[in-house]
Every structure is written in structure tokens, then in C-alpha cells.
UniProtKB/TrEMBL annotation:
This is Uncharacterized protein. Keywords: Membrane, Transmembrane, Transmembrane helix. It comes from Actinomadura spongiicola. The chain crosses the membrane at residues 21-46, 66-88, 109-132, 152-178.
Length: 188
């Protein structure tokens, strides 16, 4: 548990257990697709058969290697997913000391709820809209590629969890909003 606290910060005391689970799960459901994407970017034969690996670069400039693009995309995806942990952690309540000008100040509720809520809605709609076409998608060059057999199974296993990202983020966001806006009842 100490490793988790060191990496993710201290969980706030009044966060419901279900919200903590939702926030951590939201940050983890992205990981399988990131690993698949990185492996594909480094040339693993797990994606569609596109022939020459150079054909995969699509609209990328010639000086950008495909592996660096997939690595960057995966790191950014996981970093965005990790922000869900802030909805149940101390650093989501008070700006950490390494944030210039804001360190130690309370995070405005709307500064966390609005982006998280919009993100949850976009992720939910976007992933649910893509579920029916899971076996085909656009290649970097704009063409359509199909997956079959074990490659399709691996793709579904790694990208399937993304369907949960939006709803898990929404649950953690609702819990954050309720926790931060609840007015304490006067004591008799």
C-alpha cells in the first residue's frame, strides 16, 4: 500500500470506497491498449497485416518514427487516465507544492468536475460508438483495415476495457462533486 500512496498520493479520507475503486480502475483500463499500441509501434506482428511497416506512418512526417508516435500517444493516454486518481486523492483537493503560484491552495471544484465530466461524456459516447466496428478501423493512410483470428481477439482484449473508461470516470467525478459540494448539516 505504501508504493501506491507514494505513486498516487494519499487518498482523501471521505472518498467512498466505490469511488476510489472507480478512479483507480479508470486509470488502469487504458493500460492494455497502450501496451498493444506500443508493441505494434515497435513492429510486433499483432495488428493488421499492412505489408511494409513504412506504410503504417500515414500522415506522420518522415522524420517521426512510428514507434515514437505510438509511445507518445500511449504515454499521453495513460497520463490523462491517471488524472482520475486525482478525484479521490489529496492532490485533487489541494494543489501540490510543486505547482507554482497555486501550491497549497484548494482546487476549485469546477476546475476538476467540468473537464472530468466532459471527458467522461466524450469517452463514453466515443467508445460506445466504436464498439460495433471493433473488427475494422482506419489505417493511418485513411484506408480501412480488418482484423481476424487471434489478432482480433488480442485487439478486443486490449481495447475492450476502454469501454469502461468513460463510465468509471463519470462515477469518480460524481463522487468528487458530491463530496466537495455537500454542505455539512448543522449539529443540534
Amino acid at each position: 500500500m505504501a508504493i501506491v500512496r507514494r505513486a498516487h498520493g494519499r487518498t482523501v479520507d471521505n472518498a467512498p470506497r466505490w469511488a476510489v475503486i472507480a478512479a483507480y480502475a479508470a486509470s488502469l483500463v487504458v493500460l492494455p491498449s497502450c501496451l498493444w499500441r506500443i508493441a505494434l509501434g515497435f513492429g510486433a506482428p499483432i495488428g493488421p497485416d499492412l505489408g511494409d511497416a513504412e506504410d503504417m506512418s500515414g500522415d506522420l512526417p518522415d522524420w517521426v518514427p512510428m514507434w515514437s508516435y505510438t509511445l507518445l500517444l500511449s504515454v499521453v493516454s495513460e497520463a490523462l487516465a491517471f488524472l482520475a486518481v486525482g478525484l479521490v486523492s489529496q492532490w485533487g483537493e489541494v494543489f501540490p507544492r510543486w505547482v507554482p503560484l497555486l501550491r497549497g491552495r484548494r482546487v476549485p471544484t469546477s476546475a476538476a468536475v467540468i473537464p472530468a465530466g466532459v471527458g467522461a461524456a466524450v469517452l463514453t459516447v466515443g467508445t460506445l460508438a466504436s464498439v460495433p466496428g471493433f473488427d475494422e478501423f482506419s489505417a493511418p493512410d485513411g484506408g480501412t483495415v480488418h482484423l481476424e483470428g487471434w489478432r482480433l481477439g488480442l485487439f478486443v482484449a486490449t481495447y475492450g476495457p476502454l469501454v469502461l473508461w468513460g463510465p468509471l470516470l463519470a462515477a469518480a467525478t460524481v463522487a468528487y462533486y458530491l463530496r466537495r459540494t455537500r454542505t455539512p448539516l448543522p449539529r443540534p
